[in-house]
Amino acid sequence: MATSAARSMDGRVQRSERSREAIVIAMLGLIGEGTLSPTAQQVAERAEVGVRTVFRHFSDMETLFAAMNDRLTEQTESLFVDAIQEGPFADRVEALVERRISIFEELGPYMRAAAIQRRSSAFLQSQHGRNIRTLRRDLRRWLPEIDSAPREAADALEMILSFEAWNRLRIEQRLARNRAAAALRSSVSQLTTALDVAG
Predict the structure, then answer these.
(1) Predicted structure pTM score
(2) What is the C-alpha separation between 99 and 161, in angstroms, rounded?
(3) 27, 133, 154, 161: which sits with the fewest CB atoms below 10 Å from its CB?
(4) pLDDT grade, residue 14 (50/70/90)?
């Protein structure tokens, strides 16, 4: 009897875990397709669970955001593998720009969705701060020369290479990826040339 009860409990736990995972995957899928604020009904339909199941698993949105972040980190880990940061300055600038474009294009929908919810989420506010610090460190690993440039120049370069700048080009100005990339390269090139960082 006890063994039967234990098996029944294990089965319920496994079903609950599967439902939870399906909900997280559904949320990420909907956001990735452009639905930045999915409704519980949309999530339930995609996950093939009841709406009440969605609320039961994630009545606390912070828990849902954290679960989504964990899953997204697993899916996009390869984007953040450190590449070789050597060679001529101009080559490193180009490589860094391409790296940022790849990251922002892949994570863009999720970063836009997070921005919508950030004001009311302590988790997303904290994660946003971590993202900014990560990109700042990444910039200095690729271009350590900027440490000897005027502070305002380094700040401007950090801004130009931010997701917000890329998002402005792609969403607000409605530029195709190639045109947005050309604009970004031009801005970075003009700034670094004007600062004589390369020389």
Answers:
(1) 0.84
(2) 10
(3) 133
(4) confident
